[in-house]
Amino acid sequence: MAGPSAARKAAFEILLAIERGRSHSDDLLRGRAVEKLAPADRNLTTALVLGTLRWQIRLDHELHALLAKPNAKLDDEVRIALRLGALQLRRMDRIPAHAAIDQSVELTRRAGHRFASRMVNAVLRRLATAAPADWAENSATELALAEAHPQWMVERWARFHGLDAARAICAHGQRQPAAVIRVPDAAAEAGLVAKGFELRPGSLLSHACVLAQGDAAAAEAVRAGRVRVQDEGSQLVAELAGRGASILDLCAAPGGKTLILAERNRAGRIVASEASQPRMHRLQERLRPLGDRVECRLADATEWAEEGAFDVVLADVPCSGTGTLGRNPEIRHRLREEDLARHAERQRAILSSALRAAKPGGQVIYSTCSLEPEENEEVVRAVLAERADAKAVPLAERIEELRGEGIVTAEGARQLAACITPEGWLRLLPGVLGTDGFFVARVDRTN
């Protein structure tokens, strides 16, 4: 029997590293081992890794039901080989069943599990002929299993946003999001179209386009930095930050929002801060074309030393990332509900630090890509309760300003108006406007 294909070997090694907590999929899929693959193998590796992570919960459920001992503990290598085979059988109909099965058997054998390879063969052959399970999705429990999300997450979303919204969030989490690019001008857009890229307008912003056809990574304008791949919700956060003579991006890496701040504030002083040295290095590389227009500082966002110095502070804080499960499917396997309190404690400290950094009369934009109230509304309420010099300012007026400036489209403004919470904050749920999930609040320092 021929050995496993290059793509399957690479996917197997990446999933094994993730399973053992050694690294994350986004880093591994951009690593040297994957870069050396032929383009077709690179694409298949990515599809296998992200597909397995997306559907892992449901795949495991179906696979364990076919084991002779359903509660048996499997070695990591055997579990990964089974998942890869099951993904191809259930979700990749262009791959012949015999190829999916034989390749998983070979992966198991070459990982040193010759005896288990016979079990992998038998289980996958049974799966290939078994009818797929069908769940009605009429409860959070059914929805979680059908859409391969942790039950605790789906139960929370159904409780906070309703079961229909939870369905939309889960469905969004099971699809690779469309590539959205920020196109600075008509000339850049025309250049992409001339190269054969098919673009359609974004949902919200005049500078956002959805790449309907073509590989963004292959676009010379993207590689050169003239056009950037960036979720439309992420772009909107930076647009909401507004204008000022002095601006602080408090948690700046990877730098997409900093670039928009620099674009909108060409004469302003901009400081981009980051706590991690590796992330700071990548941030500096990305901002290098701006020269001395942006000052980069390595600093802990909870301990910002410069007080009362900035007109605008953007605090796009580290969070659980539950609004980005379509883009980062492994989060659902790493995150635990008890982690939310730890995130919230640091987020409260960062928001307080951002308010200290703002001038009296200055504004702070607080944002996360989380769907969880502990990291969003509860953080803002807690900080407002602690500080007499802070007040929440509704975002509806700022959205109208952006519409008047032609930055937010008229239809985008209408859709965003429906996403404003009773407190005047903005909540974007996945599956509603085509964006990742975001929460944004404005808090002004009064004195």
Any overview of this molecule?
- This protein is α/β, with parallel strands linked by helices.
- It contains 20 helices and twelve strands.
- It has helices spanning 6-19, 25-29, 32-35, 39-66, 76-91, 97-110, 114-129, 140-146, 151-161, 163-173, 186-194, 220-223, 232-240, 256-264, 277-287, 331-334, 339-357, 377-386, 396-404, 410-417, and strands spanning 180-182, 198-201, 208-213, 228-229, 246-249, 269-274, 294-298, 310-316, 358-368, 390-393, 426-428, 438-445.
- Strands 5, 6, 7, 8, 9, 10, 11 and 12 form an eight-stranded mixed beta sheet that branches. Strands 2-3-1-4 form a four-stranded antiparallel beta sheet.
- The mean pLDDT is 94.
Q: Care to count the β-strands?
A: 12
Shape: globular
The CA-CA distance between the termini, in Å, is 74 Å
Low-confidence stretches: none
Strand fraction equals: 5-15%
Helix percent band: 40-55%
Tally of individual helices: 20
* Secondary-structure content class: alpha/beta
Task: Summarize the biggest pleated sheet.
Answer: 8 strands, mixed
User: Taking all residues together, what is the mean pLDDT?
Assistant: 94
Radius of gyration: 23 Å
Task: Please tag this protein with its features.
20 helices, alpha/beta, 447 residues, 4-stranded antiparallel beta sheet
Explain briefly what this protein structure is:
By secondary structure, the protein is an alpha/beta fold.
